[in-house]
Amino acid sequence: MGGGCVAAIAGVAVFMPDDLFVLPRTEPALWAMIAIGYPVLSVYPQGLIFRAFLFHRYGPVFGTGVGMIVASAAAFGFAHIIFGNLFAILATTAGGLLFSWRYARSRSLLVASIEHGLYGVLLFTVGLGTFVYHGA
Questions:
Q1: Taking the CB of the first residue and of the last residue of the chain, which one, N or C, has fewer CB atoms within 10 A?
Q2: Torsion of CA 110, 84, 93, 99, to 10 degrees
Q3: pLDDT by residue (tens digit) across 40-53?
Q4: How far is CA 126 from CA 82, 112, 118, in A?
Q5: How far is the C-alpha of 109 from the C-alpha of 107, rounded, in Å?
Q6: 8: closest CA among 129, 135, 134, 115?
Q7: Is there a contact between 58 and 51 (Cβ–Cβ < 8 Å)?
Q8: Which run of H or E residues covers position 39?
């Protein structure tokens, strides 16, 4: 997880310095609500769909290895097309590879969801949340 954290922080620091840690700096209560609510209300349901369901339903089509991991990650990334930016698609596809690999290896939705939640909260914390959330 360390490399992803460093890359996210460095990327924001270099390319979007005004946004570095903007949410916890300017709206700490909202940031805390996201840090608590996002894993439960968003991460776990996504894990149910893009890991548990897809692995169970399409395992016979894609197998249980790399094919299924790539298919799950592609579906996860594609679902984020609604945000209308390339970063959201690329970042969530890369994350989808990691989370699907973790799920395939551990067969634990909880383990994959914890990792997904940590990375997601990291994105909101360092200033990249605007790429993956538009608000309700």
A1: C
A2: -10
A3: 999 999 999 999 99
A4: 22, 21, 12
A5: 7
A6: 129
A7: no
A8: none
